[in-house]
């Protein structure tokens, strides 16, 4: 006996409302019928998907897998319906792009400019965030692609496809009040006592910066402000005497009060995009991929 769609729908309702009673009320069925549906689901799978407690019902690890997969399927069905309606109206899409801060001011706008130059009406949404927020959205189908750093040095998840577009060298940004403003090259050891502004946890970029300090044998700075906004980082460097780690992709232009200095032995990170391995990209998404791969 196969798992039935109604059983998965019932599990989703319990996961959403946290109890059999509330889920049964919302779905308009009796609580015994709902309990029987879940019992049949567990019998079919041979595992428990829910744990009942005095406070309600919680998903087991097996239940979490089912809910995650089911939410992805529902998202795909919703997307299919939306895409059909958009196409009937002469609109291409939807295309939902996840983007990390480092590509929002350079790589992504340039790619979209080329895409829009050769397209009719389109339905495109940009979701900005950090990798640790965007990857679950990619898995669930809430977004179609992530553009930003790819985790080449940390290994990619088995369900995520990564494509490298370019190498992005690291450097140090300093302001006019910095003792290093007239330097062409600097090492992390020389900056050990500097005032820093660095990325917050939760991104591949932060993990790359941590790796830079570890490789150099330098402790993570104690005199440090954490921020992810690039305008905030640049302003603190310009006006507060802070230094920060930047990459070529982040810097749109060289300004007189903001200088990029070569960081000795820093190496580079890789910029690219991430897709779900089991997805079939839409024509609009494939055009964006082609543009990025040929333009970079």
Automatic annotation (TrEMBL):
<dbReference type="InterPro" id="IPR005119">
    <property type="entry name" value="LysR_subst-bd"/>
</dbReference>
<keyword id="KW-0804">Transcription</keyword>
<dbReference type="InterPro" id="IPR036388">
    <property type="entry name" value="WH-like_DNA-bd_sf"/>
</dbReference>
<dbReference type="Pfam" id="PF03466">
    <property type="entry name" value="LysR_substrate"/>
</dbReference>
<dbReference type="GO" id="GO:0003700">
    <property type="term" value="F:DNA-binding transcription factor activity"/>
</dbReference>
<dbReference type="InterPro" id="IPR036390">
    <property type="entry name" value="WH_DNA-bd_sf"/>
</dbReference>
<dbReference type="GO" id="GO:0032993">
    <property type="term" value="C:protein-DNA complex"/>
</dbReference>
<dbReference type="Pfam" id="PF00126">
    <property type="entry name" value="HTH_1"/>
</dbReference>
<keyword id="KW-0238">DNA-binding</keyword>
<comment type="similarity">
    <text>Belongs to the LysR transcriptional regulatory family.</text>
</comment>
<keyword id="KW-0805">Transcription regulation</keyword>
<dbReference type="GO" id="GO:0003677">
    <property type="term" value="F:DNA binding"/>
</dbReference>
<protein>
    <submittedName>
        <fullName>Uncharacterized protein</fullName>
    </submittedName>
</protein>
<dbReference type="InterPro" id="IPR000847">
    <property type="entry name" value="LysR_HTH_N"/>
</dbReference>
